[in-house]
Amino acid sequence: MSDLKERIERLFAAAGPAGDEHFAAFEELRRALDEGRVRAAEPGGDGAWRTNAWVKKGILLGFRIGRIVHSEAGALRFADKHTLPLRAAPPGARLVPGGSSLRDGCYIGKGVIAMPPCFVNIGAYVDDDTLIDSHALVGSCAQIGKRVHLSAGAQIGGVLEPVGSLPVIVEDDALVGGNSGVYEGAIVGRRAVLGAGTILTGSTPVYDLVLGAVYRREGDRPLRIPPGAVVVPGARAVVEGKGREWNLSLYTPVIVKYRDEKTSESIQLEHLLRPPEE
Fold first, then answer.
1. pTM score > 0.85 for this model?
2. How many other β-carbons are positioned within 10 Å of the β-carbon of residue 74?
């Protein structure tokens, strides 16, 4: 991919109108994203996630050079950049009828189930056997692991810009509860559970009642929920000024326990929705 990377970097930095080389390079990138051969972010040998800024530049290039076209899919009508068409579900995945959209340039793994309506944006990577439930969003460049359950109404932000910033990452076997949101490059560790209504952002500290720790984004280091943590919505008291006088509190996520056998048994519903093993 070094040749494609070089072309994307050069074309992204160049001024002037788009030519055949721009469209050819973006089409090659889009195919590679579809097939999972390139990713906007990926883990290194040490397990730490790293951003591939050139992939993000390529996606932004596709937005820049595209022109608005009108299209139809059944009763649905669209107006979008011609460089960013819809894609069909790949073999082995289920896209259940009812208004869902997969944008070309997203990777959809084997055994993925997409319940209507949901949306997966370009640059996203959704690994094998993940369930995307109704009204869920997987934003541009978000990285979703294997066997993840994104419950109804879950919002997984992307982070396309700045190009050097880490996107939102949900690692293998995590569960994101209904109406939860993960934004600003936060990382949800393996087997972690976000209770319904939990919101994670880069600016919100997370209080660990089990280990007595506080997790937050620090500089270039993103907020990371530890593996197996069970997170629920909570509140912390305002201790100064009028906030204290008025007895106010602010929202904050709270880790109340770490995942055990009982927790695992309570989230087995997702397995009932999967096809039997071949």
1. yes
2. 7
